[in-house]
Amino acid sequence: MRAKDFSMGLLYNKHVIRFLGFCIVIGFVVGLGVSLTVFSLEGKSTALRLSSGQVHSGQGERLTPRPEADRPLDGTPKPSPTPIPDPYLGESGQTTQVRIPILFYHYIGNNPIPEDTARDTLSVTPDRFKEHMEYLSQEGYTTLTFDMVNDILKGSQSLPAKPVVLTFDDGYIDFYYNAYPILEQFSFKATVFVPTGLVGGGAYLTWEMIGQMAGTGIEFQSHTVNHAYLPSLSRTRMVEEVTESKKTLEERLGHPVNWFAYPYGAISGSSAKAVKEAGYAGAVGTIPGVNQSAGQMFNLRRQRIGANMDLETFKTKL
Length: 318
Ligand SMILES: [Zn+2]
Hints:
Order of helices and strands: HEEEEEHEHEHEHEHEHEHEEEH
CATH architecture of the largest domain: Alpha-Beta Barrel
Number of domains: 2
Structural class: alpha/beta
Bound molecules: zinc ion
CATH class of the largest domain: Alpha Beta
Strand content: 5-15%
CATH topology of the largest domain: TIM Barrel
Number of strands: 14
Number of helices: 9
Radius of gyration: 32 Å
């Protein structure tokens, strides 16, 4: 029995030793696996943090995260650099402000698709539009073209007592049927910002309509080719959008096209730079305000007129 007990004990111990050895190996493998997983998740979350670290500045500029090398190694915050004035977005030193309300409309018509509530916010009925124009006429407002705004901001033309600029984005076909006759009635000047690639398609003006209205106080200026969201485009595509639309309009109209509207009001330092380099004299965004300055020629302020705005609200936009 003793010998058997002894050999059983030895056998038992052997099993225990093997089992313990097995546990150590498994423990090591599992431990290593967990470490590797944590390491890889860390890597992923760093990558996520970096991609979500792309932020939009107030002007819609997409900023990339600062490279590691730019960060102080000892953790003390670097003194923030003196802001560099952006000659395209203003603050260029030419800060004299002139009050010139630039209004912007989209659709002048009854919304034919009631389910399209987004369109409601962009629509003003012809009756309401006529009320707006009647008010401007009765109050003695002078409608301006953008070349006139340019001359006023640069000091070569005097400011009329009650200036206003009427603009219409996207070149919808209802401009021809509903807005144009009313503008003609009051002999008002107006500017339509046209995405040239959309002209002639269903809801949009045709080149024939544009040709008919051009030169009668209605100006057609650029709104890119495809109504592009410029800050998301590569530099090459961005340049194409702003130069091709200018070229097409100039060929069709036979005169220089110097003004631009950023689709979606999406303006960034790089898109404003592309617009300036394409040869435009200036551009409008959708930042509200009535005070303009020569230093903000590529980010002129505009007042949105939509959602069938009543006359009392309209008056507050001037
Ligand atoms: Zn637009």
